[in-house]
Design goal:
alpha+beta; elongated; 93 residues; 3-stranded antiparallel sheet; Arc Repressor Mutant, subunit A
Length: 93
């Protein structure tokens, strides 16, 4: 039996990737609200996804406030699609 990608199997990281698979980009505040996570936990999980190349983070400013925008990469899209395929196979769907 094939093991599920442990990086995507985390509830918050899976939620983030699920959101990003359906939008062109999402900012930090949007992701925090949609996942009901804390800023600190979300930040750690985004860094993990970014460090393996599943997402890219762009940090900038809007006025004097910082803004972080997240986008899924082609590599991340393929990893997510493989995760879903592996999960379906595991569940015999």
């Amino acid at each position: 039996m094939k093991e599920l990608d442990p990086l995507l199997h985390s509830q918050l990281r899976l939620a983030v990737m699920s959101i990003l698979m359906n939008v062109e980009e999402a900012d930090f505040v949007y992701l925090r609200e949609k996942t009901s996570s804390t800023a600190g936990n979300l930040s750690v999980q985004l860094d993990k996804l970014s460090s393996v190349g599943y997402i890219v983070l762009e940090k900038g400013f809007v006025g004097k406030k910082t803004r972080t925008v997240c986008r899924v990469t082609d590599y991340g899209r393929k990893a997510f699609e493989q995760y879903v395929k592996d999960l379906k196979q595991l569940l015999n769907l």
